[in-house]
Amino acid sequence: MDEVILRRCVKAAQYMLENRATVRQAASKFGLSKSAVHKDMCVRLPQIDARLAREVAALLEYNKAVRHLRGGEATRRRYRGLQSAADGV
After folding, report:
1. What secondary structure letter does DSSP report for 22?
2. Nearest CA to 11 among 65, 58, 36, 61?
3. Gyration radius of the chain over CA positions
4. pLDDT tens digits for 13-62?
5. Number of domains observed in the structure of the chain
6. Which of 1, 73, 81, 82 has its CA at 20 to 30 Å from residue 53's CA atom?
7. What CA–CA distance (Å, rounded) separates 43 from 47?
8. pTM of the predicted model, to two decimals?
């Protein structure tokens, strides 16, 4: 595996763990696609550092478990903003 990819995987994993970040947030931070970050975390990272990969896998499971809550909150914020804009007009 290329050295650049190795370093990228480890940096992205450390960022995700330190910030409790989602795949989307990590992809945005490192200028990558969600697919690239997901592949790095699920396929490449276990080959590089098994302990780090287990920690990231646990975080990914947590993020998957709460994604419906994040989506609901995002929708609530969106419609609250639209309602405020309509009230001001």
Report:
1. -
2. 36
3. 17
4. 999 999 999 999 999 999 999 999 999 999 999 999 999 999 999 999 99
5. 1
6. 73
7. 7
8. 0.78
